[in-house]
Every structure is written in structure tokens, then in C-alpha cells.
Amino acid sequence: MSLKSAYKTSGEIFRQVSKMYQPGLLDQMKAIKNGEIVVVRGQYDHIETLLDTMKLPYELISPKEVASHNGGRVMFVNCSSYDCIDKKTKDTVKEFVNDGGRLVTTDWSLGFVLGIFPGKYKKIKDTAQEVVEVQCTTDLSRKLLGLNYAQCHPKWWLEGSSHIYEIKDGVVPIITSNEMEAKYGKPYVATGFTEGKGEAIHFISHLELQKTKLSTKEDKKGLETFLKNMKISKTAEMDDDLMVAELEAAYSTLNTLAYLCLPSALLNPTMKSVMLKSNIGGEKSKALIWKQ
Fold it and tell me: What is the architecture of the domain spanning 4-289?
């Protein structure tokens, strides 16, 4: 079951929902400028595809360019293997986060976080490829997933060999799954921690979900049901053949991505305005971390 069409339709639904019910969110997204969002290429996840769907500007760099880049305001690190990280990259990312940046990593990029911030996580096992239902037990998780109607059953796709992990000192759960905990012993879908003036947030598996599952009668209902739940109207850009489960999966990750891109801190309410320095092209350059 492909979610490509679901992401396209959900992008239109997100814009309508935001315009009608949370215009401040849409205004902040429209204000995002080139250089604020940086995406590090990965082998598996493709966060840049979702940013394209949301029509948000970003700069795409390679892992080798991280050490010489200012990181912008938000740095997304796509799923990839990070067995060894050089000292310059470690120092650059530590400075980026400590000075107020937001680092967002997915799945195998847990190794990226562990290499730079040791002691925050411990990988314990890998998953099979499957889809698990997630719970919105905190205000932040409800804000990120954006599905606020009673019948919703948000789900998260686990890629084969996704990293199950324990959380350590200072790391807080954001999105959890009782189903994943029953199968693998740990419930953590998304977690995060603050470091200096900034924050780091990690997701198991990918933000670009590839599958969902039809667990309930509600899951198997169509586009009209989802639009009714979200209290908006159908437009010509929307795919009639989509089911609620597909739309919930796609919409929730797009909504999560939107909040990850905003200037307001998610975990640290005292995020300050700072200037980050880099040496790209041999010249000093600066990037503003936004103050809320």
C-alpha cells in the first residue's frame, strides 16, 4: 500500500485545516526563508520529499558537508548508518544545538546522536517491518500528530531493522506506542532532549512513511469520512480512492513536520536568539536562531 497519493492529498488537507483553524501556524510556515531548514541526505528516509509536499524551502547537503555548515535553524538528518563521526562534525553539531538549533534525526541516524551526545540513548534491538498504533498521551504529541477527533487511530510504520532504544539521562518521551512496547519492550516512537539553548528530537523508523494498516472499520472508510472528521471540504486535488488509515498516517507526519520546522521551541521554552558561525568558502557567515 503506497502513501504517495495520501501525502499529496494530505498536503492539501493540511493547508485547508491550517487556514481555517490555526492560521498562525500557516503564517509562520510562509515566513520560513531559504537557509533556515537544512536536510542531510540519507540512504533510506527522504524528509526532503515531505518538505516539497509542504512547499517549504530547504537546503540539501551531504553528511560530509555537516562539519562546514552552519546548520540553519533546524537540521534534519535522514536515516543512514553513522558508525564513525569525525571530531569536526561532532563539534559543529554540538555548537549548533547548544546555541539554539533543533536537530531532528530518524531511525539509523540514532548513531549520529549517540556519536555526538553519548549517554542519551542505548540501542537494544531491531524491529520487523510492520505498522503499530501510537498513542497521543501528552499535549506535545497531540499537537504534532494533529488528529483530534475521538475515532482516530494514528499509526507509525516500522521499517525492517528499525532501532528500538532505551532512553537515558534527560530524554523525554514524545510519541509512544503500547503495541510496540508489547512486542519489543520499549514504546518510544519519538523522544527528545534539550542541550544548552537548543533541542534534539529522534524518531524511530522514518518520517516518510511507506505503509499503514487497516485495523478497524473506521480505518477502511474513505476520503469523505476523513474530511468530515477534519471539518473541511473536498477539492479537485484530493484522491477519492484513499482510506482513512492512509490519510491519518500521511496527515500526521506532515503535521509533525510542520511543527518541527517552526521557530518556537518544542522542548525548551527558553530558546534564545543566537548567531551561528561557519567557514563556508573560507568566509565567516551567520544564521539566526529565532527567539520566541
Answer: 3-Layer(aba) Sandwich (3.40)
